[in-house]
Amino acid sequence: MEIKRSWKRRFDQLEHLTRKERTLNISLENWQVENISKSRMQKSALRVIEDGSLGENFSLGRSEKAAEELVRGAEQSVQYGDKAVFSFSDHSLNSFHEREEKNYRAGQVDEIISFLEDVLDFFKSSAPDITLNLVFGKNYDEIQMETSRDAYLKDNLCNFSLMVSLPISGGGSQFYRSFESSEMFSGIPEAELEQFLREFRSAGEVSRPETGKMPVIFSPRSLYLFTFSLQEGLRADNVFRGISPLIEKLDSEIFSPKISVVDSPHMQEAGGRRFFDDEGIPTRRQKLVDEGVLKTFIYDLEHAAKMNAKPGGNGLRRDLFSSGIETPISPGMVNPTIEPGESSREEMISGVKNGILVENIVGFHSSNYSQGHFSVQAHGYHVREGKLQGRLEDVMIAGNIYDDFQKIKSVGRKLYPGNFGYYPYLLCPEIQVSSR
């Protein structure tokens, strides 16, 4: 704390964020251990305000030299910084729980190996002829925020993850399932893996739908095309700059009444759960879209000040292509979820006469996603007469979430982890599908 007292005398305001991270990752490729990696590091970010200007710098490590370089870099950057229109946080929050570190320590190597052996045994007994890839992760983060306005916030979280992927032989694609838990897995998710295998056996042959509009079932793993596009529209910085498609849409219907989108930052099983954001603002559950109606935008401190709004804990060091302590602050959803509905995945499939089930997408980054547009390659299955017919190949889907998601027919009753948040399966009755 002595160093931080000296820092306070050098600036009008300061904000110091520290993250201590421990990770263990084990990857298997084609049934064999490919890599085991372990890391432990501390990262820091310092934002300062001096004479009305904003500066920041980043560092790795916890040495006195790293700390001094952190301050010196912030002093230099503030000379060229943007005008500061806000003050740093003055909140206090201690959401540190000993159980999180206890959960991390409880997942010992022998227990992890036993768990992975159980997963391998399951697939060996059910499908010994497939190519199997696994990635297991164990992560523990401690996050601390202090400001010169007497803010002090502390949080920690532990997360275990498993990704099972099955490459298509000669097909150039793969299907996968992801699982998350805040503590070591107590057993393998047999029911989910059995369903995954049943689907995968339908991927042996290629089945190409005809080009045209048809029903599309979006899996939770593909729905980041919806969430990232929506996030761009919700971001207060985009609204302020006049480039959001949702300007003047508050309290208007933008999606089907079957769609409710909630930022759920305290969801226990979510790997990205947070009790405060990267600006020291406590997070909270926010219903962003309620039965299709837009209810609020998402704010960081800067744009809350510029737009006379209250920040809700959405100032994050994360964007579409990167995340980490060196990523600039911008408004973002912490852990987006789509509220579940009443349909099962099986009911959706059985009700489709001719359509597709999209498992994964490729090429989203090249879409005009900030305006809701998507044009992506779809990996998944052709659905005919209520059954999975074969895998997709050279199939594209295109549309706009603000048009196509007005027509959602069915929402799944169960949430699954996606690439960014938790989602159910969704059935849209008409999406443009192109096949070569």
UniProtKB/TrEMBL annotation:
GO terms for biological process: proteolysis. GO terms for cellular component: cytosol. The keyword Hydrolase applies. The keyword Hydrolase applies. It comes from the Bacteria. Keywords: Hydrolase, Protease. It holds the Pfam family PmbA_TldD_3rd. Residues 211-434 form the Metalloprotease TldD/E C-terminal domain. InterPro entries: Metalloprtase-TldD/E_C, PmbA, TldD/PmbA_N, TldD/PmbA_sf. This is Predicted Zn-dependent protease or its inactivated homolog. It comes from Halarsenatibacter silvermanii. The lineage of its organism: Bacteria, Bacillati, Bacillota, Clostridia, Halanaerobiales.
